[in-house]
Q: What sequence folds into this?
């Protein structure tokens, strides 16, 4: 590891934490319905939307109705993305004349973008028309993220309200997330990204004449195609909304999607910005900011060591190259390390940082190819996904997942001392623990069951690109990603096949909605409860002791569930790489 | 139920217009006014002819030019139409083979150079379109390019420095040399 690299990691964490309070306080104001400095601009738009659609913003609903509305609008999103892909050949804004996308790939991508996963089975610049990208994919980037935030806000209301039947109006939370949070941040980021060289254009792809023709056996290539499109606007929201689906095939490794160190820093910041700030929003809304800081601390305690570990592993390089006469040592003139699949402008530190941030959050965008990481460098992102996407996690969904772990943590603590567990003044009883357990177990099931089936199906193992144990890692990574709504990949796996399109589509679907529904059920159940008095016997949930308990719960569940599978993949590979040559 | 579906559909359509039409339209407008060059691909022209983008790497194999990062795109390297990395794992024999072949090519073009090869010069980039190489990778090639072109090494190093960008604000990213800009500057020399 280099000092320069560590400095960049430290700067990132410091800037991120510094933005938590201002943005978190702003979002708390938005969801309490207070006026903000953007209200004069966005308030009229919001009211117009309610008026035209007949939504009464003052009318709240119980949790079943809230869940129904959320599922309904997600279903519409799914249908829209599916239809746009199938029909893009006859629709406008398609200068490359790209044809309809296959039904199985369209299904996969539609589920993927509705569930905030953005698993990329397709090659953006070669398959998606400008219209599909901006009217299908980018819109879902906003709306799936807004769904996650809305569900979190409903859960927070469950903690705050006493003996209440209602948890909020889904349409209000959904519209406010989109208009007041995601839209302004995206607009600012998109314009800055365009200034750095992220393309934003509706012109057809540009043909240029190569300076030096490429002579191959069959033919000589004299021209290069430069893909264009409305990328900056889409890249901004795919980073901010923990979506991650790239405009281009290689996502933010593409120079037109992430051209400079500054664009890279801002895109990385955007990955964790909202999930981190929502911790503060949570603290504000439950009227005890220490509760929010405690959850953020738990996330950082898991994130930082894995980040440094991934950086160290990648900087150490590939021992197989040493014998070939390759210089992998870091110096003032080169970043060194394992540069396969990495971009020169980002080097090792920024590639490791992005890989860790994008999998800690359920973002799934990449600026380097995770498939070419060293075994331990690849283990960090894989395990971060398997932890259930609660270390920051998706916008909204990460924090509601972490709150489920908090429920389990106070339950375990309650078992130890023989008291009924409480969290934020609400008794945690059998119903809440059962629902939280579903939230914890469904993704584990999707990942392990999916991987187990895939390794037994010849059509699935045929997609593997790398021989040996790394091939198993590719499959495990794919289901870890889909089963936790992340979306990144060990991209060597040829996943645009009917098997993976359907299997991963089902994993994404189950892990999104069978988490969201139990979470909303808990919100409803908590809202109906009375507040319990704080006594000497109450476990405080803002202390370092509770942070330690929460971190231990997350790590234990993650380790016990996934270590055997990881042992067959990256751990064996690490031993092979560093064992006898 | 019907009422709910109606509400959902209308909210969905309205937000689609806001986030899928107005928002990208507004960004396009602002970008076109404020950053027209960047937003349309940072294109490079020589004598009025489009020769590439300063952000997209091209493939160079003549010893008279600096070579860029190896590219794993197919069928041709640096194929802008389909960006791609190699996705080869660290133990993949094909990766070791590819690295050996690239080292052999560098050695063949410059037999006197026995220094170890900077890693970024023999490993495929993430995008397959990386426009830059490390300063070490450029320095490694300076003697070859100078000899092939009959230029003093000091002159070539000067051009390398002109095509080099440091860390942003002294902190972010890595120092790097833009290969297309460097080669165009070399070609302009004579």
A:
């Amino acid at each position: 590891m280099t000092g320069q690299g560590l400095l960049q990691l430290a700067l990132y964490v410091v800037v991120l934490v510094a933005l938590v309070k201002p943005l978190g306080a702003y979002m708390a104001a938005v969801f309490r319905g207070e006026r903000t400095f953007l209200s004069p601009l966005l308030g009229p738009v919001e009211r117009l939307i309610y008026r035209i659609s007949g939504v009464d913003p003052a009318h709240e609903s119980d949790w079943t109705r809230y869940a129904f509305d959320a599922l309904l609008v997600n279903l519409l999103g799914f249908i829209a993305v599916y239809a746009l892909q199938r029909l893009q050949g006859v629709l406008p804004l398609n200068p490359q004349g790209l044809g309809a996308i296959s039904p199985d790939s369209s299904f996969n991508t539609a589920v993927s973008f509705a569930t905030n996963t953005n698993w990329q089975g397709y090659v953006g610049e070669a398959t998606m028309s400008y219209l599909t990208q901006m009217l299908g994919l980018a819109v879902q980037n906003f709306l799936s993220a807004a769904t996650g935030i809305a569900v979190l806000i409903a859960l927070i209301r469950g903690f705050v309200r006493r003996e209440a039947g209602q948890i909020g109006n889904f349409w209000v939370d959904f519209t406010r997330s989109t208009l007041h949070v995601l839209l302004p941040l995206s607009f600012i980021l998109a314009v800055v990204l365009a200034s750095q060289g992220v393309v934003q254009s509706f012109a057809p792809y540009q043909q240029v004449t190569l300076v030096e023709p490429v002579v191959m056996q069959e033919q000589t290539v004299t021209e290069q195609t430069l893909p264009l499109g409305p990328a900056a606007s889409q890249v901004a929201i795919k980073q901010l909304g923990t979506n991650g689906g790239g405009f281009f095939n290689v996502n933010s490794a593409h120079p037109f999607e992430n051209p400079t160190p500054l664009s890279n820093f801002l895109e990385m910041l955007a990955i964790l910005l909202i999930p981190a700030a929502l911790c503060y929003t949570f603290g504000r809304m439950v009227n005890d900011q220490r509760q929010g800081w405690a959850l953020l601390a738990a996330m950082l305690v898991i994130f930082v060591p894995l980040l440094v570990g991934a950086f160290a592993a990648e900087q150490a390089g590939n021992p197989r190259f040493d014998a070939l006469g390759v210089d992998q040592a870091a110096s003032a003139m080169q970043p060194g390390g394992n540069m396969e699949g990495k971009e020169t402008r980002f080097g090792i530190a920024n590639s490791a940082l992005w890989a860790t941030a994008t999998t800690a959050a359920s973002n799934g965008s990449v600026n380097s190819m995770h498939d070419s990481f060293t075994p331990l460098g690849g283990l960090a992102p894989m395990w971060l996904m398997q932890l259930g996407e609660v270390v920051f996690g998706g916008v909204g969904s990460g924090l509601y997942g972490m709150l489920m772990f908090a429920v389990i943590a106070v339950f375990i603590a309650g078992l130890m001392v023989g008291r009924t567990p409480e969290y934020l003044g609400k008794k945690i009883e059998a119903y809440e623990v059962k629902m939280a357990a579903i939230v914890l177990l469904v993704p584990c099931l999707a990942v392990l069951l999916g991987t187990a089936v895939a390794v037994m199906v010849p059509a699935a193992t045929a997609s593997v690109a790398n021989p040996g144990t790394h091939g198993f890692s590719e499959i495990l990574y794919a289901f870890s990603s889909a089963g936790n709504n992340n979306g990144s990949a060990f991209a060597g796996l040829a996943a645009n096949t009917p098997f993976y399109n359907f299997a991963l589509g089902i994993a994404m679907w189950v892990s999104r909605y069978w988490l969201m529904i139990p979470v909303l059920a808990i919100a409803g159940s908590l809202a109906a409860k009375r507040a319990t008095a704080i006594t000497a016997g109450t476990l405080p949930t803002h202390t370092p002791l509770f942070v330690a308990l929460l971190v231990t719960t997350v790590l234990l569940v993650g380790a016990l569930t996934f270590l055997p599978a990881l042992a067959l993949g990256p751990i064996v590979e690490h031993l092979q790489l560093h064992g006898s040559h | 139920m019907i009422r709910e579906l109606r509400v959902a559909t209308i909210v969905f359509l309205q937000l689609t217009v806001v986030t899928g039409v107005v928002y990208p339209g507004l960004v396009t407008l602002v970008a076109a006014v404020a950053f027209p060059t960047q937003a349309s691909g940072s294109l490079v022209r020589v004598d009025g002819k489009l020769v590439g983008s300063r952000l997209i790497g091209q493939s160079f194999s003549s010893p008279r030019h600096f070579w860029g990062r190896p590219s794993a795109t197919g069928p041709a390297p640096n194929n802008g139409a389909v960006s791609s990395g190699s996705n080869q794992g660290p133990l993949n024999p094909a990766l070791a083979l590819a690295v050996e072949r690239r080292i052999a090519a560098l050695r063949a073009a410059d037999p006197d150079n026995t220094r170890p090869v900077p890693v970024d010069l023999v490993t495929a980039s993430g995008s397959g379109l990386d426009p830059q190489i490390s300063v070490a990778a450029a320095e490694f090639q300076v003697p070859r390019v100078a000899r092939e072109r009959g230029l003093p090494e000091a002159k070539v190093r000067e051009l390398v420095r002109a095509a080099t960008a440091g860390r942003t604000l002294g902190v972010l990213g890595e120092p790097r040399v833009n290969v297309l800009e460097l080669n165009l500057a070399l070609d302009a020399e004579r």
